[in-house]
Specification:
By secondary structure, the chain is an alpha/beta fold. The chain has a single domain, classed as Alpha-Beta Complex (Spore Coat Polysaccharide Biosynthesis Protein SpsA, Chain A). It contains 12 helices and 15 strands.
Length: 309
């Protein structure tokens, strides 16, 4: 680490409805409790080697020395409040796990704003609940200098081939002087947004990035000022006819940039597990078995301690 003030808080956005997960999920999940939770919108309840998907991310946050974790849920969600007030609390004693609730599903900026009381003026990591980020990536973002925000920019070539084509539709980042200049959502021609810059990596070092398309997987380090942007950001243009636009985090980020906020870009080239569609259960299961065997073992050890008489 670079000696920056410790970033000990993380906010996990997990209040979505999991609508894209519903059609055909019973082909991949048979356990009644697990399937019921996914049907209710808590798709991170999908189990891999006996453990819910979100357990793996909580473990990585704990290993990165994050001591306070807040999960943003919908008020009706029950699976994770019960888990992390029960056995999950005993599995991760190093961290205080709390909950915020997004009363109305009104976009990612609105969801982040739900955690305002948890943030309380501190810097914090912000991440998706339906993705799995490595300890290295988390620790890299925790090196964000005071006075700046940070974002992980992922090289498309680092992703699992099973999802690499899908990644082409993800939001891409543009940079200037190692800082974020803008995020382009759903780019029609992503290859037109190649980055040529020197970007930050771990240990205060830089890497020359020349002609690569980098995507945002919604892994950030923010100061509390982003919450003010989330509070005042206008609704996004409706994405579907007849539906109201939502308050979206990329728009809040754009507003932060417009008002002079700096966002340091960190280069990452590694896989990010993505649990969006029913078939992802199979893809993620294979990735976890092949690459996260040590995490399975660690979760098993922690569970055994938690339930020991």
């Amino acid at each position: 680490m670079s000696g920056n003030p410790v970033i000990g808080k993380a906010v996990i956005l997990a209040a979505g409805s999991a609508s894209r997960m519903q059609n055909g999920i019973d082909r991949y999940v048979s356990d009644g409790e697990e399937l019921s939770a996914i049907r209710a919108g808590e798709k991170m309840a999908a189990r891999f080697a006996r453990f819910p998907f979100l357990d793996y991310q909580i473990l990585n946050l704990v290993l990165a020395k994050v001591s306070m974790i807040n999960i943003v849920l919908r008020p009706e969600d029950r699976f994770f409040t019960e888990r992390y007030r029960g056995v999950g609390k005993l599995m991760f004693p190093e961290a205080e796990i709390s909950f915020s609730f997004q009363e109305v599903a009104d976009g990612t900026a609105h969801a982040a704003l739900s955690a305002s009381d948890f943030v309380e003026g501190d810097r914090f990591l912000l991440l998706n609940g339906d993705n799995h980020y490595s300890v290295d990536a988390l620790e890299m973002l925790m090196e964000t200098p005071p006075g700046l925000s940070g974002v992980a920019a992922y090289d498309r070539l680092g992703f699992n081939p099973s999802v690499r084509e899908r990644v082409r539709s993800f939001a891409v980042v543009e940079t200037h002087g190692g800082l974020l200049s803008r995020i382009v959502e759903k780019p029609e021609e992503p290859d037109r947004h190649m980055v040529r810059d020197f970007l930050s990596i771990r240990g205060g070092l830089e890497k020359e990035v020349d002609g690569k398309v980098l995507v945002s997987m919604n892994l950030w380090c923010f100061g509390p000022e982003i919450l003010e942007m989330c509070r005042i950001v206008p609704r996004h243009v409706p994405r579907k006819p007849g539906k109201q636009g939502e308050y979206e985090l990329p728009d809040a980020v754009a507003l932060l940039l417009e008002r002079g906020g700096g966002i340091q870009v960190f280069y990452a080239c590694e896989d990010v597990l993505d649990l969006t569609r029913p078939e992802d259960v199979e893809i993620v299961g294979r990735q976890i078995r092949e690459h996260l065997e040590n995490r399975i073992g660690e979760l098993g050890r922690r569970y055994s301690v938690a339930v020991r008489p």
